[in-house]
Amino acid sequence: MSAIPEIQRRRLGKSGLVPTVLGFGGISIQSVPTGEAVPVIRGALDAGINFFDSARVYTDSEAKMGAAFRGRRTECLIATKSLARKAPDIRRDLETSLAELGTDHVELFQLHNISRAEELEEVLAAGGALEGALRARDEGLCGHVGVTSHNVNVAAAAVRTGCFETLQIPYNIIEDAAATSGLFRIAEGMDVGVIIMKPLAGGALDLARPALRFALHPLATTVIPGMVSQAQVAENVSALADPGPPAARELQALRQSAASLGERFCRRCQYCLPCPQDINIPQVFICATTATWRGEPERARSMYERLMTPASDCTGCGECEERCPYLIPIREMLAEAAELLEKQPGR
Ligand code: SF4
Ligand code: SF4
Q: Which pTM was predicted?
């Protein structure tokens, strides 16, 4: 039997936490029944992965992790996050997360998806979510407080406040603004630890090895792909057993794979928002790709049903397309998503 390669660890900025360069992202595990999910999470622990990231909004992801960590709590660093924007709400979310995870504290608690300037302002204000998170940290319910964002400009502003110890941001060959905009350098300058989400572009990139090696930027600490099988755990561990950039041939294949996604790939930067009809455009596209690329139509429909406004409410005003830097034909794609996600199957 071949020995499991040991996974390197890197310091997560001023938090002082030292996660493995390969962490475990908690979104995808929602789609796997608990009986299958728990062995996958334990398999990740067995493989030496020590960093597990979930979120209050990832339905039963925290509960599955909690079940997997029973008796093994000291082997892992747990990160979770809340979409709440006010102090009392984020406190309530954290208490629920702790109960689901079966623990009395998490190592890292993050303000989730602070992607608009107004959201950052709201969480930083008196009585905002940051105040609630810092109070929880003082009480020992969480070790450190971080922030997650899909927008490099807002993320840079959040980092510059000096209020956060970590930043979670997407980075992959398609969504590379965290590097090109200088955000990684800003985080380095503030000693804010960087966690890379979406290293496989939400599952759109199928060449895991080069994609993960690309996403583990030298200024980042850890990448956190979702994993739903022991085979994926093994593949990802092997990809980062000896971290470094992808080889030239691998990089070329990765670029070709990215190019094949075409011009209509939404980067989830949210510049198109707000929509006057309150349509969450990038979330609609995530639901659509969950149904198509990921081949999970039932999960896509259940995610779509949770959105406030259906894509079919689009009036076609075109404001969003004027703001999209990637010239995505949003109206056309929303109509396709409505057709895909609002029609009853079989009709
Ligand atoms: S539609 Fe365009 S602007 Fe909106 S999130 Fe996607 S890439 Fe960004
Ligand atoms: S075109 Fe549709 S989605 Fe875009 S801003 Fe107008 S109503 Fe919203």
A: 0.85
